[in-house]
Design brief:
By secondary structure, the chain is α+β, with helices and mostly antiparallel strands. Helices cover 24% and strands 47% of the residues. The radius of gyration is 26 Å and the shape is elongated. This is DUF2993 domain-containing protein.
Length: 250
């Protein structure tokens, strides 16, 4: 009985030491991946990195992590805009969270690549508004219009607010247009479902759509992930991302 009790105590102690070593190794690895990602993506703040699964050390032995989640509060994504063309050179992506599966890594975590990744993020309406025409634009002789605001229109639509003037007189109140938002070839596109009326003035569709419709390309997301879907929501455009062979470091 005494020998059995001693054996049980040894097993418990060793088990506790293993768990402690496993958690310490996990904490170190999460920190290393976060630091590498901050450097490789030139981030202003260290991202959150969570490695799932227990025990961690058995994953280390195989050289592959089953499940890694990356969280970046703010990310400045390249828009591909040429200098001087009036378009913003970058756009701020908020609350980017990506879940990586099958992450193969080197022993010192200098390189890490995920087989697959999916995630979510948001572009605020204020940020997306920067891609619309900021100056009043002539849409007919004596009539101008410009986009002055974006908001949630419900049902996955964006409500676009326009300010219009006719013969130098401002049309009372904003004109509102319900628009569809979609993604195509890494580009977020906003397209008016129906065009606004400017009293009795006849407007060509192409002319007015040069104001109501706009788009923004988003390049260079972390690790090579790409836009998949977009949908208008309360606080901005919610986006989903996906990718394969996504580099976390190296």
């Amino acid at each position: 009985m005494r020998a059995l009790r001693t054996l049980l105590i040894v097993v418990v102690v060793l088990g506790g030491l293993f768990v402690l070593a496993d958690r310490l190794a996990l904490h170190f690895a999460e920190g290393e991946v976060a630091d590498r990602l901050k450097t490789s993506e030139n981030l202003s703040a260290t991202p959150d990195v969570t490695i799932a699964g227990f025990p961690f050390l058995t994953q280390v032995a195989t050289g592959t992590l089953d499940d890694v989640t990356i969280g970046i509060d703010d990310y400045e994504a390249d828009t591909g805009a040429a200098a001087g063309d009036g378009a913003p050179s970058s756009i701020r992506i908020e609350n980017l969270e990506a879940r990586m599966k099958g992450v193969e890594f080197s022993g010192d975590f200098s390189s890490a690549t995920a087989a697959d990744a999916t995630g979510t993020a948001r572009i605020s309406y204020a940020e997306l508004l920067k891609t619309a025409k900021a100056e009043p634009t002539q849409v007919a002789p004596g009539a101008t219009a410009q986009v002055i605001g974006l908001s949630d229109g419900g049902g996955g639509k964006i409500k676009v607010a326009l300010k219009a003037t006719v013969l130098g007189v401002r049309v009372p109140g904003p004109l509102y247009v319900m628009s569809t938002v979609a993604v195509e070839d890494d580009t977020v596109k906003v397209h008016a479902d129906a065009l606004p009326k400017f009293g009795s003035i006849e407007l060509g569709e192409r002319t007015i759509r040069s104001i109501t419709d706009f788009q923004q390309r988003i390049d260079d997301l972390p690790g090579g992930i790409r836009l998949d879907k977009v949908e208008a929501a309360k606080n901005g455009v919610e986006i989903t991302v996906k990718g394969s062979d996504v580099k976390l470091a190296g």
